[in-house]
């Protein structure tokens, strides 16, 4: 059964979507079978991969509302060896429309049908701790937390960690675990002292839970989504591409050890 990883941080602008897209693409380059689920109503992951939202026949919203089977929502992107379940702004209305008893488990119930088909399933979460993020956490085996190397970016981590602990306690009832895959330091400006201070502070707190790979600020990673491509395809020799490939190797190695 595939490893299900939620990319989550309730703060926006820390690199969740960039991490989701480029980690998935880099895992695909390692010949891993990868499914990327866009669970953010902003649908930035969908757009970043060049998928025209106005032409979509089905989305993750249709899956969660039982309008279609999850298998029928998957789009295969052969050029980057990644499968995608896309999203649109309609996902923002899910909390109103989803009328079932165990709403936090809606995605978990669906994803179990196809988890055996993949090595990794990556879920891009919205910048909040609402119903959608809870669905991602309850469905996942682990959480990867991107943290921007700026002071304000680490200010709200306590709230996320408390939410993770609540989910962990609930999942124990079902004999299921939710671990922290790792903390990923992003958008580091290597020229500034303040950025490195945040790096040291995060490493002091999370110890070995921090990835060795640090994603530095890079123009190629910012430009790639405008072409509907991950940076690993758009600029394969760029520093950003090399860093996401390094991250993918770390994720694979960590899971092989476990």
From TrEMBL:
PANTHER family, sorted: P-LOOP CONTAINING NUCLEOSIDE TRIPHOSPHATE HYDROLASE (PTHR13696), PARA FAMILY PROTEIN CT_582 (PTHR13696:SF52)
Family annotation (Pfam families): AAA_31
Listed name of the protein: Sporulation initiation inhibitor protein Soj
Every AAA domain range: 3-177
Gene3D superfamilies xrefs: P-loop containing nucleotide triphosphate hydrolases
InterPro entries in UniProt: AAA_dom, DNA_Partitioning_ATPase, P-loop_NTPase
Family assignment from sequence similarity: Belongs to the ParA family.
Domain of life: Bacteria
Gene name as annotated: soj
């Amino acid at each position: 059964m595939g490893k299900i990883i939620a990319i989550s941080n309730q703060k926006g602008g820390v690199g969740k979507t960039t991490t989701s897209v480029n980690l998935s693409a880099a895992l695909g380059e390692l010949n891993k079978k990868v499914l990327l689920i866009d669970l953010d109503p902003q649908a930035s992951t969908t757009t970043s991969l060049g998928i025209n939202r106005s032409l979509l026949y089905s989305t993750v919203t249709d899956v969660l509302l039982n309008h279609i089977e999850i298998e029928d929502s998957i789009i295969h992107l052969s050029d980057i060896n990644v499968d995608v379940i896309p999203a649109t702004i309609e996902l923002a209305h899910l909390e109103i429309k989803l009328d079932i008893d165990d709403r936090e488990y809606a995605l978990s119930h669906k994803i179990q049908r196809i988890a055996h088909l993949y090595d990794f399933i990556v879920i891009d979460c919205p910048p909040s701790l609402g119903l959608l993020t809870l669905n991602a956490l309850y469905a996942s085996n682990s959480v990867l937390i991107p943290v921007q190397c700026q002071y304000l970016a680490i200010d709200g981590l306590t709230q996320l960690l408390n939410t993770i602990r609540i989910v962990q306690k609930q999942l124990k009832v079902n004999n299921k675990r939710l671990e922290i895959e790792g903390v990923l330091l992003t958008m580091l400006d290597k020229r500034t002292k303040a950025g490195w201070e945040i790096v040291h502070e995060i490493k002091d707190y999370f110890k070995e839970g921090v990835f060795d790979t640090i994603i530095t600020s890079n123009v190629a990673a910012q430009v790639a989504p405008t072409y509907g491509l991950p940076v690993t395809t758009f600029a394969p020799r760029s520093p950003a591409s090399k860093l996401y490939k390094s991250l993918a190797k770390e994720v694979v190695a960590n899971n092989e050890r476990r």
